[in-house]
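Appendix C reproduces, verbatim, an entry submitted by the partner laboratory led by Prof. M.T., so that reviewers can inspect both the input and the predicted structure.
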Amino acid sequence: MSSETRIVSRSVVLAQTNIDTDQIIPARFLSTTERSGLGAHAFSDWRTGADGTPDPAFPFNREDNAGRTILLAGRNFGCGSSREHAPWALRDLGLRAVVSSEIADIFRNNALKNGLVPVVLPEATVQTLMARPDDVLEIDIATRELRTPDHQVHRFPLDAFAQTCLLEGVDELGYLLSREPQIALYEERFHAR
């Protein structure tokens, strides 16, 4: 996981509500514990037709959306099962943040552990952003703000510990390992009593 303080990008819009983890990464692709390569299967059932050819209208198949790292999604994004493969697939697809008015708790926690920033904003704000996907948005993790080109600033909730991990580019274990000298010092002092 790399540290990031800001994400600056245009957006990909998936306006559907209740996008579940099986739609994000279908179960048939869960036989791996490797994170790389899953992006090719993200939204697989939506990206291709019954004959296996790519659907040119699907947002992630459109050339004008290539390289965009922010997903604007309908309400209740990431509902369903607790599969961690869903944020893995989205990260491998190139996404760095998901913006929605509601993000399922388990998905949100898995996303944070994998460096995918979940941004929850009011529904009216998300709808406004969806209407303007070519606007360059800035997500500032340090200030917990999403900024638009017309100078609107939208604050979003982010747990302080998750924020620290994102800013340092570590997961929970990485956070503990980075504090190993302090932990060793504490243990040394504790056992000296």
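The chain has one domain: 6-192. Additional entries are available on request from the coordinating office.
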